[in-house]
Amino acid sequence: MTLMKQKEPKEPKRRIALIMNVLFYFCGLCIGGGIVRNLTLCYELGKDDTANFIWHILPESVTMLVMTICGLCIFLILRNVKKEEVFVYQNSSLIQTIGVLIALNGLFQVTLSWFTPEGVPTDTSYRIFVLLGVFIIFMGYLFKMGVRMREEQELTI
């Protein structure tokens, strides 16, 4: 019976670490995919010497930059989780930073689509970026509330 009680606290930590590792590797794959996409786009557009090159490469590059920064934030959260510091203000701030970056990426994409010349195809996935960013910001605020509740509980005991 005591063996079961000892395993219970470690199991959620393993799950959190596994989820964070999967998220980190997924971000790495997205960044790698963005690099490959940009390289192929540069190759294709390099053959066609037009002034529309910047309108193709800029949205992809900004999204790749945002994914890189989000991957770094996830790495920092993972590092805190490994130190067994899950419910701390730094993690909630990092989650909110991820949300703000994703929402700003969506707003940048929609603003860029307004200035894109006619005839250049634009990506319409910016709406999901804004929605996802706002949702992640909300999750960051919930996480911050959880940190406050944990601190109040520690003071009560």
Automatic annotation (TrEMBL):
Domain of life: Bacteria
Record field: transmembrane: 16-36, 62-81, 93-114, 126-143
Protein keywords: Membrane, Transmembrane, Transmembrane helix
UniProt name for this protein: DUF2975 domain-containing protein
Originating organism: Bacteroides muris
Record lineage: Bacteria, Pseudomonadati, Bacteroidota, Bacteroidia, Bacteroidales
